[in-house]
Every structure is written in structure tokens, then in C-alpha cells.
Amino acid sequence: MISVAVAGASGYAGGELLRLLLGHPQVRIGSLTAGGNAGTRLGELHPHLGPLADRVLAQTSPDTLAGHDVVFLALPHGASAALAADLPDDTVVIDCGADFRLTDAEQWQAFYGSEHAGSWPYGLPELDARARRELNGAKRIAVPGCYPTAATLALAPAFAAGIAQPEDVVIVAASGTSGAGKGLKPHLLGAEVMGAMSPYGVGGGHRHTPEIEQNLTRVAEVPVTVSFTPTLAPMPRGILATCTAKVHPGVSANEVRAAYEKAYGTERFVQLLPEGQWPTTGAVLASNCVHVQVALDERVGRVIAVSAEDNLTKGTAGGAIQSMNLALGIPEETGLPTTGVAP
Amino acid sequence: MISVAVAGASGYAGGELLRLLLGHPQVRIGSLTAGGNAGTRLGELHPHLGPLADRVLAQTSPDTLAGHDVVFLALPHGASAALAADLPDDTVVIDCGADFRLTDAEQWQAFYGSEHAGSWPYGLPELDARARRELNGAKRIAVPGCYPTAATLALAPAFAAGIAQPEDVVIVAASGTSGAGKGLKPHLLGAEVMGAMSPYGVGGGHRHTPEIEQNLTRVAEVPVTVSFTPTLAPMPRGILATCTAKVHPGVSANEVRAAYEKAYGTERFVQLLPEGQWPTTGAVLASNCVHVQVALDERVGRVIAVSAEDNLTKGTAGGAIQSMNLALGIPEETGLPTTGVAP
Amino acid sequence: MISVAVAGASGYAGGELLRLLLGHPQVRIGSLTAGGNAGTRLGELHPHLGPLADRVLAQTSPDTLAGHDVVFLALPHGASAALAADLPDDTVVIDCGADFRLTDAEQWQAFYGSEHAGSWPYGLPELDARARRELNGAKRIAVPGCYPTAATLALAPAFAAGIAQPEDVVIVAASGTSGAGKGLKPHLLGAEVMGAMSPYGVGGGHRHTPEIEQNLTRVAEVPVTVSFTPTLAPMPRGILATCTAKVHPGVSANEVRAAYEKAYGTERFVQLLPEGQWPTTGAVLASNCVHVQVALDERVGRVIAVSAEDNLTKGTAGGAIQSMNLALGIPEETGLPTTGVAP
Amino acid sequence: MISVAVAGASGYAGGELLRLLLGHPQVRIGSLTAGGNAGTRLGELHPHLGPLADRVLAQTSPDTLAGHDVVFLALPHGASAALAADLPDDTVVIDCGADFRLTDAEQWQAFYGSEHAGSWPYGLPELDARARRELNGAKRIAVPGCYPTAATLALAPAFAAGIAQPEDVVIVAASGTSGAGKGLKPHLLGAEVMGAMSPYGVGGGHRHTPEIEQNLTRVAEVPVTVSFTPTLAPMPRGILATCTAKVHPGVSANEVRAAYEKAYGTERFVQLLPEGQWPTTGAVLASNCVHVQVALDERVGRVIAVSAEDNLTKGTAGGAIQSMNLALGIPEETGLPTTGVAP
């Protein structure tokens, strides 16, 4: 059995990690730690995790996390780097935060305003062959952001196939409010979010922008720039990413389709839907699958790709466990749900 | 492997059966049938069931259902009896409809207005020792209604312990709209149900009323009568049942607590929450667990018991599979989720 | 013009008062005050109140509230009494909080745990003839709680007509989350409340219990006791109160209907729906109307009355303005919406 | 008093027209007609419209609509043209459908597939000076589509000021499900839409695309092309339109801001929010106001403008009444709400 610790078990990402780890046949759940919630019974914080209800959260520290094969860090952005430095080199450390996602120190500085901690292998196996290769046997893994997972998977095939132009990419994504975390903020109150949609981070400032650009640039092999606008939708979970890029002159609908079929034909967790069927976040709730569909708008010369994911599952905790499986050399799909909960 | 067919695979109960059966390690999913949706690709109707997306629904008939170890009937009320009669005696037939739930022909006639088809072993193992015993090896099983499961589990311990009085039981339950099925009715449109609560079947007419009374009478061993009012809540799934009964004079809070601890101490799918923690449907979404809590209101001499369940999981499909496990003599909990999906 | 000040303008009740006062043809909106939000532009707190967006909140104090014909207090429970004492006797002071609702000092002490501040005329004109009479020309008014408004209007006719028995009243109500206010609490986060129902204050401890009993006792002229369980529903606004009482032997459905028609035949803001049509909170969103329906369940000898209201409108701010109109001797319905916003 | 008839009073647009007309001080509501719902009591279809509950719907026909100063047509697309031809020339006819919105017969043919009925003065007074001028005294008015209202108001100032480039406009909009109407379709069931977001009409096929292009082309005075993707959001009402266009080189944030201030500085129903505050549909629920905000993303050379409207109010019925006011020469804002209902 693989012994696993979760730091930040009190938050939404932590809770989702535990939900999935409970279903993982080769995992034994070890230390569960938190910051302000240390000392609390897990059943109070996550009443949906019945089998762990009587566990009490320890204080997050290198000591409480020691002695595990795998440590997941589900901490506020910026908190992972210091902690990770104190964990043994041969422990698999998987960071659900942003600290190690960006390879470019300048971009990090520009969007996060702190010193760059470095970068770790990027936990999106479907990005390209290199990604999966680097995750095999990795001891340190940076889990992608929830928006970058959705947006990258929607557009990467168009860039990998050389179909899309690298400028004028526009991405508008809607996220359930769990994506904003469990912190107490007035605009996240139920009465505020139910029945309402609103944008945030408009104008290019959202921190997931450079991460999306990094991914698309990597597959395009030329610099890709992105206008990215996230919006908050009245649902607990789910991201719907509507992504569009200009295509090179003469690209046909068949070429577009072929590029996506080639990219995802053998992927277990990214499903290109049959032509004409569009993704809905409802179909991927609690699933590790991302649904993708694509169309060519010939009038305006643009490809429109839409992806739906569960921001907490494939967008965070499921993606993290998928990477853990690769790191440990066990089948990639072990313990990960391929069905959603609907309706 | 157990070969399983599902009749009525296009509806919400059918979809939930398939979601759970996909996770059942000893099941092979055989025929999937429907009425008006025969001929349709399952992926169109249930996009969340990726692994079955390419299955095409057959027409429901004894022929298409033949040759399986187990047949689940997820049909409109009244449609099961005729079909069941044409299925082999040694096939395990599990009816998610109402046809075989009531033992009293008069009550059936009064609430359903048609001829009584008879009654089958009742698929609520937690009801009493007899229930679980009768399910062992059963070839015909009547799955309880979603409201009766929630309401019965909330109040049965109080009646089994002789604490509650059999008159003046009042139950008010709120259900997600999937409980009303997939039929197209104006009041079930999203724009109508979001942001709104409304009652229905008020005044004692709801067909689950005699089923709740039958269950509570069985454990109380005296006739129990119930005022039951269901309401429609703006959520896809979940039932919250608020149930109250007068207690006999002198009953103490400790006795109440003890009765519930005794009833559910060893049950895997019914969890009495720690004192002071109240159930929320959010914690049992997609889980086969029911959360129960109880309080004694000494001012008015009433016990108030609240249960939360997922109407499609423990309230229908999960309960059905739990009974299947018992019927087949495999561990009762096989393939059934004990964690919810939250937030 | 009537000059009106609102203390506590930053909260949900304050915001709803302002929404309605903006539509009141005889009102001039004067001071707007707050506690921690003093100094803030109203447009930041209530972006829906465009015409007042540039107003800046003053600090709540007798000075900032001085010089108005009417002062509304929309403050946390317990904060009104001290402030009210410092407002001039000839100012109409309307308290949306609980401080002056209960007439019985012992009940106050039992449920609120502090010293009783006294009681003011009760702002529910439809309760009985005395209520409306006392509001005429009143200088101090206690606005009813949101649940008591809904529950009282549902059951009062049955008690006024001597139809209902005073024991074994059971009320289960579902409320939108704005009823819990704008305070930052984890269980009120959008991700927690969407898709979930949960009870609270179970077992007779909710502070609205004695207020409901006080109202029903007043119309019944014998002591009425109530089992009251509130639940939180996944919607921003609205209360659906399902209320049931035993009827005296021999009471007929016609008598029940007649009692309700007599009670509400001429009321503008309480509408008894046509027989067979049940209330939905969706139909009274943003309206000052309460919809009521009633049925007799002869099997169990109970009347079931259901009411739907908007907790912020008729349940708080609309009810407050209706009382203001009576206090000032202007037509009771002035400035109050009789239509809902649907769907 | 102005006598007003509403054809199609049973639908969502019809219901919203009636809600607003009830609050219009100069209107007398005359004939209310429907197709399949003729003969039904309005209270059954629109329980929120208490004051009209006892009205019975007549059959839609020139006869039942005769004798009014104003006739609103809230009919399925394609049904207005024939009916309008039979209404007197001196009756003000206001079509909430699409029949008379497009000026280009070819575009009509391409997107609607039927013969072009012609075009009427376009009911968006804020579009440009000509729009308001043409509405003054008009006898025939085409009410804009809900998406075109939101998208046009978001981007028009950038085109009017010559700031935006006419190609590569991308619009992604989220709409509440009332925008899809009251027709019974499986994907509009509450259980399907709650908790889920999904796109539709992807790839340039949505019929509002040419209407948006027509509007922006009109203000830009060069042909503007648009990639438009609508999505369905889990809320009853509201549109959030995220709109982006490339700016000409050298355009500054100040210029952008100035263009929007100039466009909307004196508009009553379009509010440019203070810098840094972004629109939310929650703030314009039931209001005739549109909230707009804009930012310049200098990294990618794009202006991002976001608008929030209530699709049924400003997006349909409120916009229609605003145009009626102009047609009749009464103050444009008469009877139209400038506050939203929140939370």
C-alpha cells in the first residue's frame, strides 16, 4: 500500500483529494493536516467523508507529514515552497498550488509578485508526450490550475496540429464557486452567488493567464498570447471554458476534427464528444474526465473549442492523483472516476 | 460475474443504476432497454456515463431482458407488474417502481386507483431484522420509495423503542427535482424551479403516505398514521425529511439518543451524526448513506428526527443494488459509495 | 414628503428597505447609516440600488439619525433598544430586529438570554383588527420576524375561527439564505448552500418559536404551543412555511375554506389562492404579498396550511413600510409591490 | 390612459410585459391573448401577477387585439409578421420577436431560412442618436434580441469612438434559462440545468449573431464581424456578456474610459460602473438597467467590455416599454424600474 498524507485537508481541494483517495485501491490515508483547523474532527469540516469522520487534523509541518510515500500539498498559493523544501527528496510531493507551475521567473514575478520558487514537472499528462514522460517516476509534481487544465485541453490540439494562429486567442470561462476556495468573502455568500453571474480578474490580470500561455506555447512551439476572462457561475463545481483562436487560411472543418481525434483518441480522461454534442459541466461532475467539443466558424475564420471539467476533480484533486499514479508507476487510471454524477 | 439488465435505462433512476453498476466489481452490464427512447445512443441521454456512451437502447420486453441474473425495472409506476410476470422465476427481479411495495390491497386501491399486484420483499435492510432476512436469497424485491426511505429511517428507531406515539406524526420533506422524473412538465422547467420552493400532494394524498405508515406500523407494532407533505426544492438531488412525533410522557433525551444509537450503531449506510451536528443533503450527494439526527423538544413533548439522503442513490438505485447484493449473497456494501460529493 | 432614515443600510434588510423606499411616492430618503461599513459608497455594497450608488454611509448614532420623520432600524438583534431610547418620542421608529417583539419578559429571557426591553405595537396588520388599530398613529413599531410572518398568516385563520386545536401544531419552514443575513459564516458560502438543504435550530430552540406562539395564542385566545423547525434552502430569498394543526372533531373542509376566505377576503397583501393551487416562493419574489393555501387531511384530522412569502419583502422591509404607512395615516399599500418577479 | 394589448401573454416575455405594465402609471391593460393557452386563467400561468389573476386569455387574432393604442407581440419567431399585417396602421405595434430586426434580407434568409418580412425601427434607444429619433412617434418597432442588447451596449462605445478593430470581435455570453422560453425541452428541465453550464449554437450559427453585427457595423460605419457563443447558466434570469475586440495600436486606457463615459454619461438605463467594479447579473435582476464595465488588456491589445442585463426586462419587455414610451412621446423612463432585486 502507498501511504499518503494530505496537507491542507480542511479546504475544498483537500476534501476532494480525500474523497478520491478513499476510493483508490492501493492507498492508505495517513496524516491529515491543516493550519487554523488543526485539532478539528474531519467530520465537522467534511461531513461527506463518513469513513474519515473521526480523524482529527494535525498541524501542518514537516514532522506531521514525515514518513509517507506521497504528500499532497493543498495549501494557499505561496505556502508550498517553504514546506516542500523540508520534505525528504525521496517522498513524492505533489503541489496543488501554483508555486511550481511557471517556468519563467519573470512571468511569476509579474503575476504573483514574489520570488520564483522554480518549476516542477507539470501534472497534465495529456499535454504532450513529454509531460507524461516527465511524470513517470517524478518526485516533485506541480498540479495545473483548474482553468489552465480546461483551457489547455480545449485548445492544445489546434496548436499541436498547426491549425491555430498564436495571436488573438480568447478564452472566457465560467467556474463554480468552489474554485474560489473556502475563505470567507462577502461576494461568495450563497445569497450573492445564487442566481448571478459575474466576471473577475478582467483585463488579463488573472494568474492563470501565463500558465495557459505557457502550455499553448509549448505545444505550438511559437509564443501564444491569450485574452482570458474568468466568470463566477451559480453552481458549486464545474468549469466551462469557451476558447477560440483564429485558424490559418484554408483550414477545413475536417482538419480540425482530425486534429482533435488524433490528440484524444486514446486518452482515457479527455473525451472528444461525437460531432454536434456539446459539453456540459453537469456530465463531468465528480468525474476525472474532461469533455471537449470543437467547431470551425468559417464566417470569421475561428475555431471554437469548448471544454467542461469538474474544477475540483480533474481540475485539481483528480489530476493530482492521476499524476501520482504515473509517478509511482501504477496504472494511470487507478482509483479515478470516469463517470459523472448527473443529473 | 453477475449479468445485469436495466429496463428503463433512459430515465433518472436508470441512469443512476448504471452509474453505480459501472463501479460494482462483480457486475457485467447486459441489456439496456427503454420505451420511447429505444434506438437511442446512451451517450445522448446520459452524457455522464462515458464508458457506456456507445451502447444503444433496446426496446423493453421480456425477450430483450432475458438471460440475465438480475433485472432492474426502472419503469413508470404501474408498468412493472405485467413485465415482471413474464420474467423467469429464477431471475432476480428488482422493481424500482411502486407496484409491489404495499401489502394492503385496500391502501393500494385507495392511493393508486388500480388493482393490487401483490407485494414483494421490501428492499430496506435497515428497517428491521426481518427485512434483511427476507432479502437474503430473494428473487423478487420491491425497492422503497425515495421519501419512505428517508422518513422511515428517521423515525423507525423511535417507534421500535416504543418512545413515540403512533398518532400525530408529521413529516415535511424537501426533494430535489430529479425525484419528479424526466417527464416534461411546465413546473419542472429550470426557470420555474430555480430560486423557488413549493409543496405538492398536500393534504395526505401523496402516494408515499401509506408506504411510510406501513413501515412505521411494522416497527411500532401498532397502527401509525402520518401527515406527510412533500415539497420541491431548487436542487437536482437530495431529500431532507423533517419528521416529528409525540413522545410518551417521561421519555428523556438520553433514551431517545440510546434508541437511535442502538438502531444504527452497526449500520454501514445509515449514520447517526454526532450530537449537535445536523444532516445536510449536500453531504450525501451521490452517496448510499443516509445521515440522521434527532432531538427531543421537551417543551412540546416531541421528538424531531431529520434525515438526509440522495433520492437517486440510497433513495432508489443505491438501495436497489444494496438489496441485490443481499439477494445474491455477496457483501451488502459491494460497489456502493459511502462518501458524498461535496461541496 | 416624509423624510426617512435607515440605520443598518449595509445589510440585506437595509438594502431591501431602500429598494422599496425608492419606489415610495411620498418618501424622501435621508440618512443612511451603518456600523463597520460607515464611510463606504452604497454602490459598492448594493450595486442594485443605482439611484443611491453615490451615497456614502454615515456612522449609526442618534445624531446621524436625527431630524427625520421616520427611522428604520435594521440592526443586529439586541442593538435597537439602546439606540431607540435616544431617538425623539415623536419620531416614528420602526425596528426590524427582535428587541420589542415579545410581550412576555420570561420568554424573552428564555430565548434571547438578555434583559427584556419591553414590547412595541406589532407590525402585522393582518393579524387581527387590534393590530391594525394599534399601528395607526404608532410612534414605535416592532416588525415581525420573517418566519413568524409566514407561519402566523398560514395558521391564524384556523385559530381565529376556533377550528384548530392549540397543541400539536407543527411548522416546518424553508428559507432562502438571505434570511441568515450578510455575516460571513462558512455554512453560508455559495458552494455549501447550492444544491443542499439543511435544518437548524432544531428541537424548539429557534428564537422565532415564542413569537409564533404569541401570535397564535393571541388569535386563539388560548395558549398555543408550536414545534417549529426552520431549514435553509438553496435560494437567495423566500420562505415556504408548511404548517399543520389538529382540527376539532367534525370540522369540515368547507368550514376550513370559509375561515380562510373570511380572514383574507379583503386583504391586499395576503392572497388565499384558488382551491387546488399551492403557493410557490417564486411567485412572491420581491412582492409584499403572501400566498396562502389550506387543505384538510381528514385521514389524520389535520389542517395543512402553506404560505409563501419573500422573507426580505413582506417578511421584513415591506412589512415595515406597510406599518409605516399605517403609522403615518397614508394608504396602507402605498409604494408596496403586489406582483412578484418570475420566473 | 394608453390602452395596451399583449399577444402571447402566457410566455415569459408576455408575463414580464404584464409585470411592468402593471407598474406603468399611464397604461390600462386591455386584451391578453395566447395560442394554446387561450381560455386559461392568468393566475394559473403567472401566479406572480396577482392583480391580473382572474383575467382569462383570449385567442390571439386581429379581432381580439383590435381597439388598443398599443399592441405588444410576444410570439414565437416568425409568427409576428402575418399578424402585424392585419393590425391597423395607426396602432403602435411592438414586436418582441425577431421578424423585423434585420435590415439585410440575405442575412435573414441565411440565419432564419424564411422570407424576409422587412425591418422596423430598432428599439434600442441607446444605440445612437438616430435610434432614439426613429423611435419617436414610431408605429412599428422591432424589439432587439436579449443577447444583442447586452452585447451591443457593451461594445458600441468602442466602435463609435473608433477605438476597436472591426475583425476578431469575440463575444461569449451566459444566459439564464428563461431566455430559452417556456417550451418543454428535456435540456431545460430543472434537474438538468441546476448546477450545470453548457454552450449552444456554437460556431457562428446563433441567430443573434447577424443582429449584433448589424448594430456594431452601424456604429462603426465599417463591417464588423463577430464570433458569438451563447451559454446556458443555472439561473432563471440574466445575461452576462463578455465581449472583446482588438484595439487600434496606441489606444490608451484613458481613451477607452472616455469613450464609454461619453456614450453613457447621460443614459438612464445604461450605467457605466465606477472603475474597478464589475457587473453582476444579480444587481440588475428585474431592472431595466444594463451595467457595463470595460478594461484595456494592453498585453494582448484588446478591450474587454462586460455587460449585465436582465434578459426579460431590459433584454425584452422593459426595452419594449421604453420604446413604447418614446413612440408615444411620454418620458422614456416612465414605469421602468431602475433598481434591481438583490440579493
Q: Can you tell me about this structure?
A:
Four copies of one chain form a homotetramer. Chain A has 343 residues and is an alpha/beta fold. Chain A folds into two domains: 2-144 and 314-328, NAD(P)-binding Rossmann-like Domain (Rossmann fold, 3-Layer(aba) Sandwich), CATH 3.40.50; 147-311, Dihydrodipicolinate Reductase, domain 2 (2-Layer Sandwich), CATH 3.30.360.10. Chain A is built from eleven helices and 13 strands. The first copy, chain A, has helices spanning 12-21, 42-45, 62-65, 80-85, 105-112, 129-135, 146-160, 190-193, 209-220, 253-264, 313-328; strands at 2-7, 27-34, 58-59, 70-73, 92-95, 140-142, 169-175, 198-199, 226-232, 239-246, 270-272, 290-297, 302-309. In chain A, the strands form two sheets. In chain A, strands 8-9-7-10-13-12-11 form a seven-stranded mixed β-sheet. In chain A, helix 1 (12-21) links the parallel strand 1 (2-7) and strand 2. In chain A, helix 1 (12-21) crosses helix 11 (313-328) and helix 7 runs parallel beside helix 9. In chain A, 65% of the residues are buried. The model of chain A has no long low-confidence stretch (mean pLDDT 97). At the A-D interface, strand 7, strand 8, strand 9, strand 10 and strand 12 of A face strand 7, strand 8, strand 9, strand 10 and strand 12 of D.
